[in-house]
């Protein structure tokens, strides 16, 4: 069984990657940030924190964003 690294730098990188995937899909579909967070019924600050990778986002929130973007939540998690 793999052992977690001693620090959480890898986790921060993963969280930022999720934000990057959201941005790429959003831009591909020519959507604004505001249209996504409003349609997902999440706050602007929550959306910005997810995008920046500064929050450990809840799976339910990711599912809302994925639904709005028309992708499966795994597309946000794994690209």
Explained architecture:
The protein is an all-alpha fold. The chain has five helices and no strands. The longest helix has 20 residues, at 9-28. The relative contact order is 0.18. It is elongated.
Strand content: under 5%
As a whole number of angstroms, the C-alpha radius of gyration is 13 Å
Oligomeric status: single chain
Structural class: mainly alpha
* Helix and strand run: HHHHH
Portion of residues in helices?
Answer: 55-70%
In DSSP terms (H or I, runs of 4 or more residues), the helix count works out at 5
| Number of E-state strands | 0
Largest sheet report = none
Q: Quote the distance from N terminus to C terminus.
A: 24 Å
The average pLDDT score comes to: 93
Q: Give start-end ranges of low-pLDDT stretches.
A: none
Anisotropy-based shape? elongated
Short note summarizing the structure:
This protein has 79 residues and is mostly helical. The chain is built from 5 helices and no strands. It has helices spanning 9-28, 33-39, 44-52, 59-69, 73-78.
Strand-helix topology:
Layout: H1 9-28, H2 33-39, H3 44-52, H4 59-69, H5 73-78
Supply the key terms.
79 residues; mainly alpha; elongated
């Amino acid at each position: 069984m793999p052992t977690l690294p001693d620090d959480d730098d890898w986790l921060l990188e993963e969280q930022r990657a999720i934000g990057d995937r959201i941005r790429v899909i959003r831009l591909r579909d020519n959507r604004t940030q505001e249209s996504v967070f409003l349609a997902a019924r999440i706050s602007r600050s929550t959306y910005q924190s997810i995008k920046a990778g500064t929050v450990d986002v809840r799976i339910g929130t990711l599912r809302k964003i994925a639904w709005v973007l028309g992708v499966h939540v795994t597309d946000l998690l794994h690209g």
